[in-house]
Design goal:
Number of domains: 2
CATH superfamily of the largest domain: Alba-like domain
Strand order of the largest sheet: 3-4-6-5
CATH architecture of the largest domain: 2-Layer Sandwich
Number of helices: 3
Radius of gyration: 16 Å
Distance between the termini: 18 Å
CATH topology of the largest domain: Translation Initiation Factor IF3
Order of helices and strands: EHEEHEHEE
CATH class of the largest domain: Alpha Beta
Oligomer: single chain
Structural class: alpha+beta
Helix content: 25-40%
Shape: elongated
């Protein structure tokens, strides 16, 4: 699945998933499907994972940070156990991001990326 977005140098700076702009001013993003996890119910994200895997892609990445990390783990496990028995966890990456707080300082927020692969 390819997604074309309008080229914006400030967004593209330092983002490895973006390639160079084409002559028409658009850039193609990577082929990996990404589901960003937030505060919605787990089943909403399970449906998003299943929908992502229906197309050409055999991988989907779940990305979450902060309190949503536990939801991302739940989405991966529920999708594997209830909906797609041939789904496996290919890779798990954890990290920390520095975000600016409302008070003007910075705070650390934990992040996780779970890559699921259809076998």
């Amino acid at each position: 699945m390819r997604i074309a977005v309008k080229w914006n140098p400030s967004i593209a700076a330092g983002n490895p998933s973006l390639n160079r702009a084409s002559p028409n001013g658009y850039v193609e993003m990577s082929e990996e499907n990404i589901v960003y996890i937030g505060s919605k119910p787990v089943m909403n994200y399970c449906l998003a994972v299943l929908t992502s895997l229906q197309g050409e892609g055999s991988r989907v990445a779940l990305k979450a940070r902060g309190r949503a990390i536990s939801t991302a783990v739940d989405v991966a496990e529920v999708t594997k156990s209830r909906f797609m028995r041939d789904l496996s966890v290919e890779k798990i990456e954890i990290g920390t991001e520095e975000l600016e707080s409302a008070e003007g300082g910075t705070r650390n927020v934990s992040t996780i990326t779970i890559v699921l692969k259809k076998e």
